[in-house]
Amino acid sequence: MNEVDILIVGAGAAGLMAACSIAGSGRAEGLSVRLLERQEKAGRKILASGNGRCNLGNSGPLEGHYRGLDPDFILPVFRIVDESKYREIFLELGVALLEDEAGRLYPRTLRSDTVHSALLNALAAGNVRVDYGLEVYDIKFRPGSGQDRFLVSFRSSTKDQLSGKRIIEDQVKARSVIIAAGGKSQPQLSGHDSGYTLAERLGHSCTELFPALVPIELADAGKWRRSSGQRVRAAAYYHSHRGKSSAPAEGEFLFTDYGVSGIAAMELAEAVERDPDSAKGDLVFDLVPDMSVEELTGFIMMQLDLHPSYDWERLLIGLLAQDILRVLLRELRAGEIRRTAGGCRSLARAMKKFSRPVKATRGFKFAQLTAGGINTDELYPETLESKICPGLYLTGELLDVNGDTGGYNLRWAFSSAYVAGINALAALK
Ligand SMILES: Cc1cc2nc3c(=O)[nH]c(=O)nc-3n(C[C@H](O)[C@H](O)[C@H](O)COP(=O)(O)OP(=O)(O)OC[C@H]3O[C@@H](n4cnc5c(N)ncnc54)[C@H](O)[C@@H]3O)c2cc1C
Fold first, then answer.
1. Which residues contact 50 (CB under 8 A, 6 or more apart)?
2. 77 CA to centre of ligand 1 in angstroms
3. Where in the sequence is the domain holding 345, given as residue range(s)?
4. Do 87 and 174 fall into the same domain?
5. What is this structure's pTM?
6. Per-residue pLDDT tens over the stretch 105-140
7. Do 41 and 96 have their domain in common?
8. Rounded to whole angstroms, how far apart are CA atoms 366 and 253?
């Protein structure tokens, strides 16, 4: 039977970084490191991230951008991997970072394949064995510190078309295991739930999982069909039938034939998912967030003075994309609004508080993130070692740590994996 010192499950952002932190720059001399990946390719979500540009961090404060049962769990990891350490880790891999005007960090090339290739180059140089198309389906833990502390069972992730059997079915003994199997969102891009099952079988518990950073379906999407593809800079919040309002999200909302997408809409999805009622509430839009009700009323009155013969659509054309404006005016029964100061005010109020009924989010298939995960109380926050199985480390999206858009999730995946990797290595040396 095969034996290794460190076995890593999953070659996504966290698994690749964990392997690099162990084997980079000859650090793991004399130790064997093996990575098992169920896909035929590593890091598929890295490649897709940031629209192919890989927004892998953010230079602003990290605190306050993560949720989970214990939002402070992230702090020790980010004390170890602060921004300068993070940049240094990537420089060591050959990747210089650049920052955009919003503080988002990207590889200098603005290409995610740069990060992907740099990680794989480092693994090849560090003699890490990476096997593709193999999924880990069971891990047994035996207390002790020897080579047989963990017994890891794996098999081909697909069945042979002719025989219907798995071509490979095998086991490997390991002194230490890092589970970096990610979340279950976007199965078409490697999302899978086996990491949760593996950790649970080893005694860990998992909080409720739900899709996050995902577009939202509106119950009246049919009315917006003609506006599909139109963008609005707006603010919005989710308001449940129980009267609970989420924090607002501001930015670009993209109207589609099913509802709304775009970063701001995706940020509101978590509130929709967390609403315990199956009948969902409303998205409440402020369609002109840069003007107060008074300013907007003044603007509409001025247009009315300048163009007394215009209908509402022509008067408001400078405020919103035309197709969206048409639906809005139809919904507000603009024909009945009086062309007076009072009418202008009620129109302004309606534009700043425009409610649309939510049907659901688009679910795991379209989510950029799985919220919830393995309970972080069961790990030491400075090392990410399991309190239940010594020698087991858990990292990345698998944990109950979910970050905002803007690079916070890759920042967590890479940083937590780095910490898990160096600690797994230190424990064996
Ligand atoms: C379209 C898209 C765009 C995104 N853009 C950004 C962005 O710009 N910035 C940002 O911060 N975040 C972004 N994210 C989120 C980010 O990509 C993830 O949070 C991050 O990849 C998580 O890293 P991970 O290593 O924990 O999981 P993953 O990257 O999902 O890697 C897990 C790996 O484990 C493998 N695996 C699973 N189970 C097993 C098993 N049993 N055996 C063997 N292998 C297994 C999987 O095949 C996968 O390769 C995006 C996500 C998506 C889907």
1. 56, 106, 112, 407
2. 19
3. 215-362
4. yes
5. 0.94
6. 999 999 999 999 999 999 999 889 999 999 999 999
7. yes
8. 16
Beta carbons of 189 and 48 less than 8 angstroms apart: yes
CATH number at residue 23: 3.50.50.60
* Interval between CA 187 and ligand 1 midpoint (Å): 10
Residue 178 CA to residue 176 CA, distance in Å, equals 7
Hey, what are 156's tokens? Answer: 């081909």
Distance, CA 414 to ligand 1 centroid (Å)?
A: 11
**CB 80, CB 382: distance < 8 Å:** yes
Protein residue with least CA distance to atom 49, ligand 1: 12
**Of 362, 386, 419, which residue sits at a domain end?**
362
- Model confidence at 148: pLDDT above 90: no
- Ligand 1 geometric centre to CA of 407 (Å): 13
**Span 79-107, pLDDT tens digits:** 999 999 999 999 999 999 999 999 999 99
CA of 65 to the centre of ligand 1 (A): 19
Closest atom of ligand 1 to 181 CA is: 34
- Which atom from ligand 1 is nearest to the alpha carbon of 411? 11
Substitution site in 123, 193, 368 for ligand 1 pocket (most atoms within 8 Å of beta carbon): 368
Please tell me whether residues 148 and 271 are part of one structural domain. no
